[in-house]
Amino acid sequence: MIQEVYQRAMKFAGEKHYEQKVPGTNANYLLHIANVAMEVLVAHAAENNFDLEFALQVAILHDTMEDTATTYNELEMNFGTEVADAVSALTKNNSLTTKREKILDSLERINLLGKETGIVKLADRITNLQAPPAHWDNEKRKNYLEEAKLILEKLNGKNEYLERRLKEQINLYQQYIK
Ligand code: NI
């Protein structure tokens, strides 16, 4: 049952991210995770053409490898190879130097997998394009917006509903750029 799949992944993510905050706030990181999962649920209700159970697990686990000590093997053991591969593609390769290289490399790996992984990336960026943390300067905001446009371009065709939503968020984010 999808409710059980959701709860199992949330329990794992909750334990892994337990001491992590949403940057610039006192909120626990699960706030970000719950918002990404919500975007995936709403997108599936709008456009029922992807595997919700799979996408939901990837959404909930998407930052575990990047932000916590979680390993590929641990994800594979608990959630299967497909989920581990998807989370892996959503994780930056830190042996690359620039931010742009890292995002392009991740998007390339995302595009080798089923559309669900790209859907989670769209949902992640939509969630992250709320008002930026106060400590971000104009340059950082500008780069973040440019990166969002790149994500939209490279993940073209994954899910029309989320692409439209990301476009709207990109337009709204212009107000934070000087
Ligand atoms: Ni994220």
CATH architecture: Orthogonal Bundle
Helix count from the secondary structure assignment: 10
Round the mean pLDDT to the nearest integer and report it. 97
Envelope shape? globular
Q: Using the coordinates above, name the CATH class.
A: Mainly Alpha
Name the poorly predicted regions. none
Q: Note the main sheet.
A: none
Beta-strand content bin: under 5%
Number of domains: 1
Give the ordered list of helices and strands: HHHHHHHHHH
Helical content stands at 55-70%
Topology-level CATH name: Hypothetical protein af1432
CATH homologous superfamily title: Hypothetical protein af1432
- Rg is 15 Å
Structural class by sheet pairing and helices: mainly alpha
The number of distinct β-strands equals 0
Ligands and ions found: nickel (II) ion
Distance between the termini: 47 Å
Overview of this protein structure:
By secondary structure, the chain is an all-alpha fold. The protein has a single domain (2-176), classed as Hypothetical protein af1432 (Orthogonal Bundle), CATH 1.10.3210.10. It has ten helices and no strands. The longest helix has 17 residues, at 30-46. The chain starts with a helix and ends in a 5-residue tail after the last helix. The structure holds nickel (II) ion. Nickel (II) ion binds next to loops.
